[in-house]
Design brief:
The complex is a heterodimer of chains A (319) and B (337).
Chain A (H helix, E strand, L loop, with lengths): L1 H28 L15 H10 L6 H13 L13 H36 L4 H15 L2 H15 L16 H39 L2 H8 L4 H39 L4 H10 L3 H29 L7
Chain B lengths: L5 E14 L2 E14 L3 E5 L6 H9 L7 E9 L2 E2 L5 H7 L4 E4 L13 H12 L4 H14 L5 H6 L7 H13 L5 E5 L7 H18 L2 E6 L2 H7 L2 E6 L2 E7 H6 L4 H8 L49 E5 L2 E4 L18
Parallel strand pairs in B: 3-8, 3-9, 6-7, 7-8
Antiparallel strand pairs in B: 1-2, 1-4, 4-5, 9-10, 10-12, 11-12
């Protein structure tokens, strides 16, 4: 078990190095530079060159990359050109917002999807199953951002139940009030995100339950005299969860990627919104840091999936 | 020897499956009895309804997709009248079932011990320690060499023969009166087959159980069975003691089956092949002898319009009258060359 995890982590080292080089080069390859638009077009080219040199942007790419890596290991990701504050501090503030939103969305997703999937599979072909399938097809067909916009319009604007922007109300004071206000702000984006990401899980789980229901080992369990509800509890549920467990790690990273949409549309100050903004401002230091973080999170997600799967499926454990 | 007490009487049982909204009989009007201390072999080609009969007795069919009629009298209770909870008092406790494919019949995510113990959980009031001891005893009884080790393992760590032993251990955990073994040796190689059959026989002797052994392997039947029922296209066409079936087979189907069995003293290299296939459920002839299409040289006048069972010797019954003058086309004295 520990061997499996250790080996998987060792594989991650070269992956992270390659990822960091790619990320760095891609950011460099974008047209424009951080000073475009922020300085007088009639400025002296010598002055611009001086600015580039000051910021370490003049040498060949590998020396720039090396500088970046050295600073990275000192916990220094440079200053944001746009916000004029250290990238680490900037991201740390945003990351907690994203984390809370992602966590809430994930909990809600599984809380909705697991019972729904099992219920639909168990009552295959009946009315509730048809309704659930209709819901998943419709949701699957509509682009995520359209769902968000419609949701924000109905629940935030027309009905006015939820705030439509921000992560906290400016009038919030005291810790209880603060937590309450933060939770109130992630409710709508969290629910909308969860409704969308349940679809895959419900569909998977439903077909897994239907498969398991007709499997030989369930027939064996029935011939042992195990009551139906216990068959679902002890045999079908756990076995059907295997593919869901395998996807759990990925789905966490999926949520972080999805947060780019959610945060942009809800103007929620998290990593996703920061990412979009820094791309439009060519804020290299922030972009590279964020892409690197997203990349590492993806790698961690796959690692997590592998670990979860080897925990739940004895056939995958390496002796 | 067999006592004459019938603890299982199957009367006029038919099971129909729903296909595109219409019901088709997979087995029709089956009559059978099983005594203590005997092995009743159910023989026939694939698709002739053997397993359907087994799952009908166990009540494993989806009531929305099947229509079952008749009576399955098990020690005075008509199983077919029971609801799910009532049936669960019999399944595993008084009737044990052994399935065909040991590779898929065990839950891949549960340890062997948990899977055997599950039966004891629902049908006994033993303490946890007593259940553990019983699991060890059962594994030993089915010929597992190192019970404590196997108990901790998962099914994928066991060989096919060992998995089948585990399945047998599950089936016999509560000393059932009836064991239904649905092709227990089909997925195993020949050396393991003999061992598994030995295990079955020794268990039967110990528990005085009755066994319904479903197989298409006449070699297995000859080795183990006390009585034999031959099924064709959802009907029993011949039944009798093993000696009667093997020494004086009557029905053309039984005779064809025996003739298509490889034999050491057979001079010819060619095996007999029964023409055609078992008709599918939707194409079953509604009247006449269902086997008629596969012995086309027999004139229609030889068959009964609605074939019934005829007793030819005490305990030996044959369906239809066509057996009386039946010969194979290449046999001496045959006029249908």
């Amino acid at each position: 078990m520990w061997k499996t995890i250790l080996r998987r982590m060792l594989i991650m080292i070269p992956e992270v190095i390659i990822l960091s080089i790619l990320v760095f080069l891609l950011a460099k390859a974008m047209p424009g530079d951080p000073f475009t638009g922020s300085i007088n077009p009639k400025a002296n080219p010598a002055q611009i060159a001086h600015l580039m040199k000051m910021n370490g942007l003049d040498g060949p790419w590998y020396s720039q990359y090396w500088n970046w890596v050295v600073h990275l290991f000192h916990g220094n990701l440079g200053n944001s050109y746009q916000y004029q504050e250290p990238v680490t501090r900037l991201i740390a503030g945003r990351a907690t917002n994203t984390l809370w939103l992602a966590l809430f969305t994930m909990l809600l997703t599984y809380a909705i999807a697991l019972p729904m999937g099992v219920f639909a599979g168990r009552h295959e072909g009946k009315l509730p199953d048809t309704i659930i399938r209709f819901y998943t097809y419709v949701t699957y067909c509509i682009p995520f951002f359209v769902i968000l916009v419609v949701g924000i319009w109905i629940f935030g604007y027309v009905l006015g139940w939820f705030p439509t922007t921000g992560s906290i109300s400016i009038t919030a004071s005291g810790w209880l009030d603060t937590i309450g206000s933060r939770f109130y702000h992630i409710l709508l984006p969290g629910i909308m995100g969860a409704l969308f990401s349940t679809v895959n899980i419900v569909q998977y789980l439903r077909s897994e339950v239907i498969d398991a229901k007709h499997s030989d080992y369930v027939r064996t369990a029935r011939s042992k005299g195990v009551p139906t509800k216990d068959i679902y509890r002890h045999h079908i549920f756990r076995n059907s969860l295997l593919p869901i467990a395998a996807f759990a790690g990925y789905s966490i990273t999926g949520l972080l990627n999805g947060s780019i949409f959610t945060e942009t549309i809800f103007s929620y100050p998290g990593m996703g919104l920061l990412f979009i903004n820094s791309i439009s401002f060519r804020d290299y230091t922030v972009i590279t840091a964020l892409v690197l973080i997203y990349g590492i999170l993806n790698l961690l997600g796959t690692l997590l999936s592998d670990i979860i799967l080897s925990l739940v499926d004895p056939r995958i454990r390496i002796q | 020897m067999a006592t004459e007490e019938n603890f299982l009487t199957i009367k006029d049982v038919s099971t129909a499956f729903k296909i595109n909204g219409q019901y088709y009989d997979a087995i029709s009007h089956i009559n059978l009895t099983v005594h203590h201390d005997e092995i009743l072999a159910l023989v026939g080609e694939s698709g002739c309804g053997k397993s359907t009969l087994a799952t009908t007795i166990m009540g494993l069919h989806d009531p929305e997709e099947t229509r079952i009629s008749g009576v399955v009298d098990f020690e005075g209770t008509n199983l077919l009248q029971l609801d799910e909870d009532g049936y669960n008092q019999f399944r595993g406790a008084k009737i044990g079932m052994i399935f065909q494919d040991p590779l898929s019949a065990l839950n891949p995510l549960k340890r062997v011990e948990d899977q055997i113990q599950e039966v004891l959980d629902y049908h006994t009031t033993l303490s946890t320690a007593a259940k553990h001891d019983r699991v060890m005893e059962l594994l030993d009884q089915v010929g597992i060499v190192n019970p404590p080790l196997t108990a901790r393992q998962y099914p994928h760590e066991l060989s096919g023969g060992m998995r089948q032993r585990v399945i047998i251990a599950i089936a016999i955990a509560c000393k059932p009166d009836l064991i239904i073994a649905d092709e227990p040796t089909t997925a195993l190689d020949v050396t393991i087959q003999a061992q598994i059959l030995d295990v079955l026989r020794s268990i039967q002797a110990e528990n005085h159980a009755g066994i319904i052994l479903i197989t298409h392997d006449l070699g297995v039947v000859a080795e183990t069975a006390d009585r034999v029922a031959v099924m064709y296209a959802g009907q029993i066409v011949e039944s009798g003691s093993a000696e009667q079936i093997f020494n004086t087979p009557k029905h053309p189907y039984t005779r064809s089956l025996l003739r298509s069995m490889p034999q050491r003293n057979n001079e010819s290299d060619d095996l007999y092949v029964i023409q055609g296939n078992v008709p599918s459920l939707r194409r079953l002839p509604t009247t006449g002898d269902r086997f008629a299409s596969r012995i086309p040289w027999v004139p229609a006048s030889e068959h009964e319009a609605t074939p019934t069972m005829h007793e030819v010797a005490p305990g030996h019954e044959v369906r239809c009258t066509c057996y009386r003058n039946f010969t194979f086309p290449d046999e001496k004295g045959s006029d249908h060359v």
